[in-house]
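Figure S4 source data
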Amino acid sequence: MGRTSDAREKILDAARALIELRGYTALGVAEICKAAGVPKGSFYYFFESKEALALAVIDEHWGGQERAWKEALAGESEPLARLRRLFEVTQAAQRAGQRACGTVSGCLFGNLTLEMSNHTEAVRVRLQDIFEAQVELVDAVIAEARARGDVAVADTREAARSVVAQLEGQVLFAKLYNDPRRLDALWANCLALLGARTPGEVPAGL
């Protein structure tokens, strides 16, 4: 059972790395199995199709990212400080990816949205669910900030959607220019988007 589980994980890891590097469409099952170091037959033991593999990669990646987002946005510090921590975690991840492979990989979900959302309904729906979950996590923090009078937004849900969209868009630019410094302006832009108090008025630690 352990060996079987290891083979599945190897396939998932190889597929995720190759998707981040080259995209999904150009990949073949044989290439994925070769990169994973497993027989081609192992692929179809675990996944009925390449689409099923893509969904598994998405789910596994979101499992890790969801934990990271919840950790960044949790705690006793003020809500804007926690939201800023999410931005810092995102930028650190892009910098680490560039150091590891020489290029900014961007967001797996954003990359797949651009490549697959108009062609694969199951993937499109799953990505929608993930972005909605991200919006929900950010919404809770913005609502807390509004209750404290730290931000001035009429609709926290739509504000959260705009924050997630801005984060995703700037990560896309960082990938396009292969420069994680494209994320440097995120926090100032977020404060402006939320109608936050001026820098001198923002609570200490932000």
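Figure S5 source data
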Amino acid sequence: MKRVSQLTLSVQLPDDETFASFKSQSNQMVVQQLTHFLDQITKSNKQVHSMYLFGLSGVGKSHLLHASCAYADTLGITSLCLSFSELTQLSVDVLDGLENIDLVCLDDIQLIAGNKKWQQGVFDLYNRMVEQNKCLIITGDQSVTNLNISLPDLVSRLSWGLTEQVKPLSDEEKSVSLQYRAQQRGLYISDEVASFLINRLSRDMTSLIAALEQLDQASIREQRRITIPFIKDVLF
């Protein structure tokens, strides 16, 4: 796990959230755009300084931010991933100095739609990042024009860079993702088990991965394989 010690925030990154574990054929263009964007950060003459990802809750935007930071690490680029769900509980001053980091990822910008102070803070950070030739990736649940951000200058900045929509995973993609994440944990789940989880639980990947984590712990504790009867015992 990676940690930035100078911030009193939860900035650990899940080790298993990489581009390799993002199993979505319908979003391969998004992953390609992200990797191209990250590759150019190593160059002094950057063409683009920001990228905006949008999509519904649970489609994998946070996963892609974590994967971007993991990829940046392989390039020798400093990075930091923060969520507005935590940031807005703090003073906007927490953004000061982030322009010293090569790549800053900010998750769920829709959460500051009604907060003028935070909108101004992000606008100022954006300008400082560009001045220092650094880069930003920001996510939201709507396109830039539908975010209800009231600061026109911030809306303008969010529109400056690349924009990509993250599409929901199909059930087949969710099944492949679940099985891959289970394999990374040393677990085996069959197609039938994956399908059962997808059809019986909340269908977003965040909830499905949380259920997999719970099943993993229970499987270790009880020394049992993950089968449908075992899932019923643990989750229902």
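Residues 25 and 39 are 21 Å apart (CA to CA). The chain is about 45% helix and 10% strand.
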